Amino acid sequence: MTRSFPHRWLIEQQRLGHALCVVLDSENEHPMRQTLLKSHRPDQYLSIYGQTPIAELGDAGPFVFIIERPGDESINELLNRPDSHWGWLASVPKGGLSKLVEHWRERLIIGERPHQVLYRFHDNRVLARALSYLPVEAYPSYLGPALSVCYWQGMAWTSTRNPAPGTYPVPDSPLWLQVPATPQQATQARLLNARRFLLAEHVQAFATLAEQQDPEMWLRATLDQAGAWHWQTPEQLEFLLTQGLQAPACSLASYWQVRPAEKPDEHFERVRLMTAFWQGDAPL
To answer: Is the peptide bond before 114 cis (omega within 30 degrees of 0)?
Structure first.
């Protein structure tokens, strides 16, 4: 059955004398979190966001609970639905809950103000991508005091052993923050950045477009066109977005089409010059 691997992992880690933990995505698992809170003593769980600069967001942040019985009904429910991405399992030395939580608190906030973001370490997909990318020698600084972790990696359960559990400082340039984005993540990031650009610099034109057609569909189609032409630099994307908004019925003129054997940079420069000419901004 689906939960056989993680259940065996839990039993084996307990047999070795380790404490068992579930790292739970509290925001998307609020009913489960409440169930676990009712069945755990105060010393058996901690909020990751607690005692951090974002403590006020604790209700939406991840929690770590000690698992006393591997066959607990609530844990079995989680193991039976790995595709809901509720989090992952970890084993730590007895009494190691606070050290595990402190480890992730130190790695929680990424970047400098005002461009700080939260690292979603509690998402099994984030953990799985990081561990598949990191060399084994980087596991200790990433996993910290965790002895072993067990997680769903999209198609099956797997586990990873930490070769040197302990307390480590956060590296100056953490390798886990250099994990390449998936195609889906890259697409979402481009959409988000493009939307922010248009709302900040061309809000009226974008609003006018929204009166004529679905702005999200137009935005996706425009970025798909940029991808087809291999226009990926900020200058190229901004040019295509702004000119697309100005074009009659948001339809680009025929000279925009790529010519045979024309390289992306040549194509962009030709279109930029011709657009300037037709708009009366430059000689051809």
So the answer is: yes
